[in-house]
Amino acid sequence: MAIKEMSELIDGGMDRAVELMTLAAHNSFRFKDRNTVKIISVEGEDLEQIAEYCFSLGDMSPLAARDGRNLVQLMKEPCSLLLLGDKRKSEFNYNCGACGYRTCAELNKAEEVESLTANGPSCLFKNINLNVAANTAAAQAHRLGLHCRVFSTLAFAAMALEVITDVDLVISVSVSAAKKNPYFDRHEFWTKDHWDEIFDKEFPTYNRGFIGAVEEDL
Fold this sequence. Notes:
Elements: H1 6-26, E1 38-42, H2 45-56, H3 62-74, E2 79-86, H4 104-109, E3 113-114, E4 119-120, H5 124-143, E5 147-151, H6 153-160, E6 169-176, H7 192-202
Antiparallel strand pairs: 1-2, 2-6, 3-4, 5-6
């Protein structure tokens, strides 16, 4: 009689859960039936690199550093990271103007601007497709009983490290089989005094973004 221990069952369940999340994201609604979203999963050493990169951004993006510390804790129990990305240019030819250009052709000819979080300018409908896919994956994780959270910080770290390549826009869905939900305890990495200090520095001055520092126009 073949017997599987709980740890083996959980590991196998995590693998299948991530596959089902990917399937759900793949089948999610998309504009003009163009499925251009790229999806990969990340575990082990690659997660360590992402955590270290986020932590290294402490001076520029305290939120990323906090999430890097959180990822180190996540890795102590079964976890995985689903990365979803897409290119910024439009193949829709909607010419809607939401990107700031009159036509899709003008957007596609525009000079690429690299930033910490994404490369732009980008098509609105590419962003909508990507976020629908991520939310669908997260909803599937919830149905399967996994702890889950959507992260932008872990995603842009993965893009910077070229863990996911050939994309301009990226978002991540982190899932965990920890003994308790680890996504509501991130405050433990910031004391109240530190939180107050960071909040005062980040938000009221209007010269620093929510994710991190931005250069002021001179």
